[in-house]
Design a protein that fits this description.
It contains 36 helices and 25 strands. It is of the alpha/beta class. The chain is globular, with a radius of gyration of 31 Å.
């Protein structure tokens, strides 16, 4: 360190947990836990002694969520609750720190790391060195020539050289490293299977995380597949792992000046906590104790302190499950089960929780069931535990035979958390559940799609302040982790019975929340709950693919990739690793002297995809590189992988469609994801050719035409857009005519292309800068297009402004059907986050309304098909498109019936238009 008296920033939260786990538990004679207090204060005293002339500030995490929870609802979701005996030590630590005269910072909405990073950045601007006392590896990203880390508990110091020795990477690559490896404690996803060695290897090879992403197609094996499958979450992980350097603080660096110790208060605190050595030290100095009472932070609210003397109350923590009155038991005999069934029938309502083998929904088997028919009570039925000698394990066949009439009786109302999944698992045992009345998973999602992840644990704590037992409490973690079937019936009951009970309680709570807004109650009942069985039928139906066709496509892609590599080598004049940014940089910029359009943060010429796309307009080699990258992704993600997803029993692919993921109400699909299959390239369209109809059947694809633009016309009530759609005009040609001032019949294909970009760009909140980039024109011309557009369509401009104002005023926007789309960042201090939220505010009502419309259409069409009038079934939903499999003689009837119900799904001021195609495969039908 250059300075003899650096700024000392102490990561109090880091040492709190380390002291608690590393030091022996201590108790005062009154039962107050004191081990962590002694450890943390000892560390602070030690630093003050070693750096007597340095200003010292202590930073702790505040209670509650941070901005990272808004970015990723699962952030730190799996962290166990803080132990009571640790929570009770927090406020005494804060009291002692304040009595020591040290600034104490506890800033809501961010983490201690962010506050420390901000202060270190401020110190750097003032040419002051900083010493950060922490045990948290994440802060290594802050290290530079003026910032050093010290672990007071181990004595380890990390300057830039030491960081590189410890991690194998410089500080500037630590965030990349953390994004790749993830963090199980904080639930940062990273890339599954990528550990420190792999992350370091990739970063040394490719230079940065972006370099790894650019070359993902070249990384082979299962680890390469995992990387390519998790590129989106990788960027999310990077954002989560990055420490903020611009937290808005109510205190400046100059104000972080320690005041004199309040020694009488310290003596009183040390005496009450029975720290006898420290008491003697103060008494030797003639200090007399002041009156003091230790504040116990284990209950009530904990002050969030911004600096000395500045406090604001935070909300109390959720109650532990152990404080909740309950009566749970195992069902141990056939007669006991019969008695339970009788009680359920008498009650007429039962909540169901299921423990299954956690496989794909078509393969999952029941391990146990929990039933609750009144709040506070639940029973657990153990059906498949390895402890077969236990009298608690029931005969699965007998048990399910007894339950089948009850579960299939529509007169007995059922509720669960994710009804669709429960139905799938039970249907694997030949039980078709009827009488679903409520789904707490979907209800939580409709009330606020972005507040939390809608798992049962999160919903329970968010709405009832009750913590459920975690899956780790049942199966453990690490090497000692058990298979679910290895757990004991008693342990499984302790885990699952509370879920059935909590679903029963949530039923009433969430019903009340929905009924506060009539539109939300209707949206939940008639759109989401009604859609759930439709999706279940679609998922079980699945869709057939031709694995041989995909194999041949893979062979063809491999040949083309090899051909491209040889062409690249010929143009480059040498062979090299196409996946290495360093080698590609050397070829493009050193050897071929191509223009450098942009540099990386480390000052190297960029080989990122947007840069290569721009270079490809004028140079052949970047064009070939781009083609190679695209084909590599097609091969690894689709032609190689899809055949592995075929169910051996049905011979079809069965994707899982998620209702409660996308904030706007759109469906998403997994295992496999069928909603991102490319259609713009010839090779991408060939993949759809492998999705085929069964013999004697055809595929029928029905697609809403320009539905979001039509919704924009309806919402904005712009006269020009309304007229264009009412007159069945080509809206892009009509827009080109208006913007470029030429008759409709004289619009060129280039003008139409630009008008299309304007139409769709603006409904996604695109700026003139974004439009210029997309069209390849300068920003001034793009702004002229935007201005001309709004001049011709003033209603659109007014709608956008009105929507932004409403979003900022109420914190959410709504779809035409009342779905609320909350925007946590709409008032954010960070300009980038705020602008992104404003763009979302413009598009979300249109995208959300489009999602609501197609859901209504799916429900209506399913109701019609369930009458058995046709031999047809819904097999896929992809954004604005529905795909059906239909017997050849029924094709025309299905075509007319589907089109009628899709255009009738909503009454807009412009007509809904549906394009219908038919073929033996998906590409032909599209």
């Amino acid at each position: 360190m250059a300075s003899a008296s650096p700024l000392i920033l102490i990561d109090g939260s880091s040492y709190l947990f380390r002291a608690y786990h590393a030091l022996p538990p201590l108790l005062s004679s009154k039962g107050q836990a004191t081990g962590a207090i002694k450890g943390v204060i000892s560390m602070i005293r030690s630093l003050k002694k070693d750096y007597p002339d340095s200003p010292v500030a202590v930073v702790f995490d505040a209670k509650g969520d941070t901005f990272r929870n808004e970015i990723y609802k699962d952030y730190k979701a799996h962290r166990p609750p803080m132990p009571d005996d640790l929570r009770s030590q927090i406020e005494p630590i804060h009291q002692i720190i304040r009595a020591m005269g040290l600034p104490l910072l506890v800033i809501p909405g961010v983490e201690a790391d962010d506050v420390i990073g901000t202060l270190a950045a401020q110190a750097l601007h003032q040419h002051r060195d900083t010493l950060i006392s922490t045990g948290d590896k994440d802060l290594a990203q802050l290290v530079n020539q003026h910032v050093t880390l010290i672990n007071t508990m181990t004595g380890e110091k990390l300057d830039p050289a030491a960081v590189e020795v410890k991690f194998g990477l410089p500080p500037s690559r630590i965030v990349d490293f953390l994004a790749l490896t993830g963090d199980k404690v904080d639930n940062i996803p990273g890339v599954p299977g990528v550990g420190p060695k792999t992350a370091v290897k990739w970063l040394q090879e490719y230079g940065s995380m972006e370099g790894v992403i650019e070359n993902a197609h070249l990384i082979t094996g299962k680890i390469g597949e995992k990387l390519r499958d998790n590129l989106d979450s990788l960027r999310l992980s990077y954002e989560l792992a990055t420490i903020k350097l611009d937290v808005a603080l109510e205190v400046s660096l100059q104000e972080l000046i320690p005041s004199s110790e309040d020694q009488p208060q310290l003596l009183a605190l040390f005496s009450e906590l029975e720290f006898r050595g420290w008491v003697k030290d103060l008494e030797k100095q003639g200090v007399e104790a002041a009156p003091s009472t230790i504040e116990d932070g284990s209950s009530g609210s904990q002050p969030n302190t911004n600096t000395n003397g500045k406090t604001q109350s935070s909300t109390s923590q959720a109650d532990d499950w152990n404080t909740t009155e309950r009566n749970y038991r195992l069902v141990t005999s056939e007669q006991d089960l019969r008695d339970c069934i009788h009680q359920v029938r008498s009650r007429g309502l039962v909540s169901i929780a299921i423990l299954d083998t956690a496989e794909h929904f078509m393969l999952a088997k029941v391990i146990g069931l929990a039933l609750s028919w009144r709040p506070g009570e639940a029973v657990y039925l153990a059906l498949d535990h390895d402890s077969l000698d236990s009298p608690s394990v029931l005969d699965r066949r007998v048990c399910l035979t007894l339950l089948k009439p009850l579960l299939e009786d529509g007169g007995v109302r059922k509720i669960a958390h994710n009804n669709k999944h429960v139905s799938h698992v039970l249907q694997n045992h030949g039980i078709s559940v009827n009488g679903w009345r409520f789904d707490t998973h979907l209800a939580s999602y409709v009330i606020n799609s972005v507040a939390i992840n809608h798992g049962i644990e999160e919903v329970s704590e968010y709405y009832l302040s009750m913590r459920l037992p975690t899956i780790e409490s049942l199966i453990g973690a690490g090497r000692q982790k058990l298979a679910l079937t290895q757990t004991s019936p008693d342990a499984a009951m302790t885990y699952l019975a509370p879920q059935a009970d909590i679903v029963s309680r949530l039923h009433f709570k969430l019903s009340d929340e929905l009924n506060k807004t009539g539109e939300l109650a209707g949206l939940y009942k008639y759109y989401e709950l009604a859609l759930s069985p439709v999706l279940q039928r679609m998922e079980r139906q699945g869709i057939a693919i031709d694995p041989e066709m995909l194999h041949l496509q893979s062979v063809g892609l491999a040949a083309r990739l090899s051909e491209l590599e040889h062409q690249v080598y010929a143009l480059a004049g040498e062979s090299f690793n196409l996946g290495s940014p360093k080698q590609l940089q050397a070829i493009l910029y050193d050897k071929l002297q191509l223009p450098v359009l942009k540099k990386t943060p480390t000052g190297q010429p960029s080989t990122a995809e947007p840069i290569l796309q721009e270079l490809a307009l004028d140079f052949e080699l970047p064009n070939l590189i781009m083609e190679h990258r695209g084909l590599s992704k097609l091969k690894s993600t689709y032609t190689d992988k899809l055949p592995l997803e075929i169910n051996r029993t049905t011979g079809r692919i069965h994707s899982c469609f998620q209702q409660a993921v996308a904030a706007t109400g759109r469906l998403s699909s997994t295992e496999p994801n069928l909603q991102n299959i490319p259609i713009r390239s010839a090779e991408g369209r060939k993949i759809r050719q492998a999705f085929v109809a069964a013999p004697g059947y055809k595929l029928l694809a029905a697609d809403y035409s320009q539905v979001e633009l039509r919704i924009m016309a309806h919402l904005s009530q712009d006269a020009g857009l309304l007229a264009a759609f009412a007159n069945a005009q080509d809206v892009h040609r009509a827009t080109a005519s208006e913007v470029f001032g030429v008759p409709v019949e004289d619009v060129t294909s280039e003008q139409r292309r630009r008008a299309k970009a304007i139409n769709f760009g603006l409904i996604y909140g695109m700026s003139a800068f974004g439009l210029a980039k997309q069209l390849g024109i300068d920003r001034h011309d793009a702004q002229l297009y935007v201005d001309k557009y709004f001049e011709r369509y003033p209603g659109v401009h007014d709608y956008m402004e009105r929507t932004r104002e409403q979003a900022e005023a109420q914190g959410y926007v709504e779809t035409l059907f009342g779905r609320r789309l909350y925007l946590p960042d709409i008032r954010a201090g960070n300009g980038m986050l705020r602008k992104a939220a404003q763009r979302t505010a413009i598009n979300a009502p249109m995208q959300g309304t489009a999602a609501d419309i197609i859901k209504q259409a799916m429900v209506d069409i399913d109701h019609w098909l369930q009458t058995g009038v046709l031999d047809a079934r819904l097999v896929l939903q992809v954004h604005d498109e529905l795909v059906f499999e239909v017997k050849d003689p029924d094709v025309e009837l299905l075509k007319e019936g589907v089109r009628f119900r899709m255009v009738s799904a909503a009454a807009l001021d412009v007509p809904l238009v549906v394009d219908v195609g038919i073929g033996s495969n998906w590409d032909e039908a599209h």
